[in-house]
Design goal:
Number of helices: 1
Radius of gyration: 14 Å
Mean pLDDT: 81
Structural class: alpha+beta
Strand content: 35-45%
Order of helices and strands: EEEH
Helix content: 10-25%
Shape: elongated
Amino acid sequence: TICVDGWSKRGLTASFMGISACFYHPPGGQVHHALLNLHRMEHPHTGETIARCNKQTQTNTNCFCTLNLTR
């Protein structure tokens, strides 16, 4: 599972978007959680900005998933 979460500091002085992955590893019988990237986001938080952060994370981590955002 890929998770995207955004939040802002008090007073909206800074905004962030975290992208993480969660997966089950059958041989070890464990669930693993991994932070893939943490982006500092500038305003405005448009769909294009969010898509760019996702694309950068996929490129930097060789992520196997594809996110397609269309208008």
